[in-house]
Write a structure and sequence with these properties.
Helix content: 10-25%
Largest sheet: 8 strands, antiparallel
Distance between the termini: 25 Å
Oligomer: single chain
Radius of gyration: 16 Å
């Protein structure tokens, strides 16, 4: 699985990850969902990346580790998760922005005190739904510890849309680059207008 995160371009992987499952084995049980939204971050050259200009700290060290390493970080008291991409020393990352729930939905709703699409339609929302409350598992490897990523897609997107990333302000030309990828019409995509939701197929073939 590690080779998956190291042997392709980061932008291509951000698109390909859509339709794969992401699973967390926790003390609450198993949580899983299908990835429906990602954002790519291209490391030292990318003004929106935590490793821009080669910034390397204890906190962002997971980005510098082998592809498939979990990077958990806080944004305005919320937690988000990136997966490190490329071989160790090349600190690219892909943010998992939203998931369509599969297993553990009832517990997700309790953890979020929400129901419906709002349970997991955002990077901090799905983290909270999965009961992830700290950075303790940052630096662990996918498919070796608590988190796993399916080797194959469980659903194929009918159409993938590329848009600018969310919340990247005043960092041109990076603000306008289409580095966010979504399953078109999937109602669990963050900030999706109701008129753009496909409630029949959820955007899958």
């Amino acid at each position: 699985m590690q080779n998956y995160f190291e042997n392709a371009e980061t932008m291509d992987l951000a698109k390909d990850m859509l339709g794969h499952t992401f699973t967390y084995n926790s003390n609450q049980g198993e949580f899983s969902g299908i990835i429906v939204e990602t954002e790519a971050y291209l490391g030292p050259i990318d003004m929106a990346s935590h490793s821009y200009n080669g910034r390397h700290t204890k906190a962002n060290d997971p980005l510098y580790q082998a592809g498939g390493t979990i990077y958990i970080y806080s944004i305005h008291s919320w937690l988000d998760m990136d997966i490190s991409i490329q071989k160790a020393g090349t600190p690219n990352g892909i943010l998992i922005r939203a998931l369509q729930p599969l297993k553990g939905i009832e517990k997700m709703e309790i953890n979020r005190n929400k129901t419906g699409f709002d349970v997991t339609n955002g990077p901090a929302k799905w983290m909270a739904a999965f009961g992830i409350k700290n950075k303790d598992l940052s630096g662990t490897m996918l498919n070796k510890n608590n988190f796993s990523f399916s080797t194959k897609k469980v659903q194929a997107p009918k159409s993938i849309l590329a848009t600018p990333r969310i919340g990247v302000k005043n960092k041109e030309p990076w603000t306008s680059k289409n580095m966010r990828f979504i399953v078109e019409g999937n109602p669990y995509v963050s900030k999706l207008a109701k008129r753009d939701m496909n409630l029949e197929t959820y955007g899958w073939l």
